[in-house]
């Protein structure tokens, strides 16, 4: 595979975790084409973590980037204004067809460069109002994990950067590779961008039972016609309590979660087997080929056949 250069732009006050996420996910692996590096206008760069970081390249290195990622900043204070040279580098990267990505409050950099005008975008939930007020030309999506506008992508709060970077890998290389990387870093294989970014009670109260066991049980039975009453019985809860707790833990509904899990399984089957579309639909729990095509069109804007053609690892006999 041709090398795909990922450059992370290090700016003063950046959050160390936001910087580390793309370095980890796009790090060199035999099965991926990514080559990741860090550049910035200065070195060393003071971070929000109380330490300075030396960077390996200057802004001129952005000129060869296929994907340029801007980490977020300490959420105790809004970032900006940003150096003109940084904004110019971003606009030039996007003008030549490069992919531009922000994590968390890094969206403020893209917005100041004018790269989000007329597009949908997101940022940390605490700062969506500020982003909307400072940049009224941006359509701010408040309750999502990330937004994919083609060559311009933004994520919400810090850990949503993991979801966005894995989404990029999935888009570039398919579900199997993205899931392999997710397993290595012990992250959720896939969370849809449309899930709520702010989950009021992500960790159960002391003495309460989380639904992780029920979700694992469901993942082993995606082919079955699972219902909310069945899931609630497995969890030992009333349906109402189950629905409430499920939304608290995942930011989505059980049925939406099941569709996402089944779509992910269908993608893996298309990549790794030569099963017919009808069999993939059946084995993934999506039922019929018509239903499979419908969900692929809604979620991925493509067809199962086109997806298989792009990402299949199976060598036909």
Write a concise keyword list for the protein shown above.
317 residues; alpha/beta; Rossmann fold; Arc Repressor Mutant, subunit A; two-stranded antiparallel ribbon; 10 strands; 11% strand
Describe this protein's structure.
With 317 residues, the chain is an alpha/beta fold. It folds into three domains: 4-184, Class I glutamine amidotransferase (GATase) domain (Rossmann fold, 3-Layer(aba) Sandwich), CATH 3.40.50.880; 212-251; 256-311, Arc Repressor Mutant, subunit A (Orthogonal Bundle). The chain contains 13 helices and ten strands. It has helices at 16-25, 84-95, 107-112, 128-134, 160-173, 175-184, 212-219, 228-235, 239-250, 254-272, 277-283, 289-300, 304-311, and strands at 4-9, 34-39, 45-46, 52-53, 67-70, 99-102, 120-121, 139-140, 146-148, 152-155. α1 packs parallel to α5 and α5 packs antiparallel against α6. The longest helix has 19 residues, at 254-272. It starts with a strand and ends in a 6-residue tail after the last helix. Residues 194-208 have low confidence and may be disordered.
